[in-house]
Amino acid sequence: MIKNNSIVSSFKKRLASLEDYTLLVVDILKNITSYKTSWSNTIQEMYSVGPQALLLIIIGGLFAGVILATEGGHNLVTFGAITVIGRTVTLGMIRELGPIIAGLLLASRTGAKNTSEIGAMQLSEQIDALRAFGLSPTKKLVIPRVVSALVMFLPLTLIADISGIIGGVFISHLTFHVDLAYLINSVMQCIKLKDLFVGCIKPVFFSFFISSISCYYGLSTSGGTTELGKKAINSVVMSSAVVLGLDVIFTKVIWEVL
Amino acid sequence: MIELENISLALTGRTILDDVSLFIEKGTTSVILGPSGAGKSTILKVILGLLKPDKGSVIIEGRNIVDENGNDALDVRRKIGMVFQANALFDSLTVEQNAAYFLKESRNKTPREINTIVEEVLSFVNLSGTNKLYPDQLSGGMKKRLAIARALAVDPKIILFDEPTTGLDPINTKAVLNLIKSLKSRGTTSVIVTHILNDAIAIGDVLTVINDGKVTASGNLKDILNTKDQFIKDFFYEVFEDASFFVNNKKE
Question: B115 burial class (0-12, 13-18, 19+ CB within 10 angstroms)?
């Protein structure tokens, strides 16, 4: 009986959280243009989300491409199909690994940053101070973070794609002795508009959900530093899960529809 | 000026305020006194509109702000300054940027006017020359004074203080209390929430004692001490045990 009650109360709590998150999303969508009034904040956030994450994204993309080429190459050699290694790496990076790697890395980096910053502001009553003066935390804190993520995630994903393809091409050349000019040519030939569309639409959605989820967890922080730590973990876990879930949905839907 | 009528509020199933009524006159320094967890800070949040009561009304300058939504009550809210217990300073901004923050947000002053006001309020709280420092480079007392300066910058008619001297040494406590007293000369209405009796007695024109979300007594010090309530006697005993007035009351 007691266990049932705790399950019910936990379910109710999650439902209430989902309701609060939905209200935040509605508030974001209603006020998204207010980033203009917090322009300097938005620029600052863009710098933090974009250029400061560049090295991480390049390394993440490069390693993903190298792994994809190494694993894929050995299997392709078995079937005598090593010549399609360039195509495999390119499409794998653009359609799947690039957005996923960028999404997961940014869910960890940007998500943890947003939650801990806003959560610390919540604990030190800075958000109450904004509300007390009639300023909306959504407009002042959440929207600059969402807009900067929306703007910066796509170029970062493309950078992850490119570094992955470069890594994959070099590994294919060095390990499997595929001609470099042939590899470059097959990379250029295989990219189609559909692949680019798939690769570009994902980061737009990933960025919105990562930034809004992480801000929501920050705003819902209460108690003390232990709670803030838990919120940061939950934010990264939830953002990563949403990135993976959305990726599955996109892949399935796009292959069915397009 | 500020009137709370039969305010009741429950949070997560727990009653925080139970039929609280308060009247705070214009230009006075009113102290809300009580033990930790009595509901004192919640009263400030209700006045600010950060918490909506389940029952009752909050009348500020003749307007019941409970009935109004966020934007309608904005002009009333902007007449109220708040000094939070943890100061709520923006740690990524310098002293002058903190002091100017709400002035800039209100968008009705030129940069030159803002600079003049910032210099004036920083001088008033004795923080001149610290303009370029960040909050983490300030002492506890200086942070509190900066929080007061930020609240004063928007020229509020009412300032609310949440535990303004908690965690301060005696010298800084005295400085902050003197600062609060001096606000009276500017015609500002001050509402202070504290659990420190000495502070309440030092600055309060009117004291209101809260316990378990209920108003136990209200009035000047003598009125309070004349009440027969056992909680009041226990709460004031530590400070007044040597006073013949209280000893007589206690003997009763």
Answer: middle
CB B48 within 8 A of CB B82: yes
Probe site for chain B from A13, A40, A125, A222 (most B CB atoms < 10 A): A125
| 8-state DSSP, B22 | E
Provide the pLDDT for residue B95.
96
Distance CA A126, CA A117 (A): 11
Q: Which of A60, A55, A62, A65 is nearest to A91 (CA)?
A: A65
Report pLDDT digits (tens) over B108-155.
889 999 999 999 999 989 899 999 999 999 998 899 999 999 999 998
Q: B122: distance to nearest CA of chain A, Å?
A: 19
A229-249 burial, b for 16+ CB within 10 Å, e for fewer? Answer: eebbebbbebbbebbeebbee
Among candidate residues B105, B103, B101, the one with its CA nearest the CA of residue B90? B101
Average pLDDT, chain B: 86
CB contact under 8 A, A128 and B45: yes
Beta bridge partners of A188: none
Give the pair of three-digit tokens for residue A78: 């078995």
* pLDDT tens, position by position, A59-86: 999 999 999 999 999 999 998 899 999 9
Enter the tokens of residue A156. 């970062």
Domains of chain A by residue range: 36-253
- Find out whether B215 and B17 touch, Cβ atoms under 8 Å: no
Which residues, including other chains, have CB under 8 Å from residue B42's CB and lie 6 or more apart?
B9, B11, B16, B17, B51
Q: What is the mean pLDDT of residues B52-67?
A: 88
Sheet strands (E) in chain B = 2-11, 14-24, 29-33, 55-60, 63-64, 80-83, 158-162, 189-194, 206-211, 214-219
With the C-alpha atoms ordered B9, B15, B16, B22, is the resulting torsion angle positive or negative?
Answer: positive
Asked if residues A215 and A146 have their Cβ atoms less than 8 Å apart, the reply is yes
**Do A156 and A50 touch, CB atoms closer than 8 A?**
yes
Instruction: Fill in the DSSP letter of residue B119.
Output: H
Residue among A121, A133, A221 with most chain B CBs within 10 A, to mutate: A133
pLDDT tens-place string over residues A199-243: 999 999 999 999 999 999 999 999 888 999 999 999 999 999 999
Alpha-carbon span A199 to A211, nearest angstrom: 19
How do residues B93-121 score in pLDDT, each as one tens digit? 999 999 999 998 887 889 999 999 999 99
For Cα atoms B107, B112, B116, give the angle at the middle one, nearest 5 degrees.
100
> Phi and psi dihedrals of B85, rounded to 5?
-60, -40
How far CA B88 is from CA of A113, B19, B148, B160, in Å, comes to: 20, 29, 11, 13
Are the beta carbons of A135 and B105 separated by less than 8 Å?
yes
Residue A8 CB coordination number (10 Å): 10
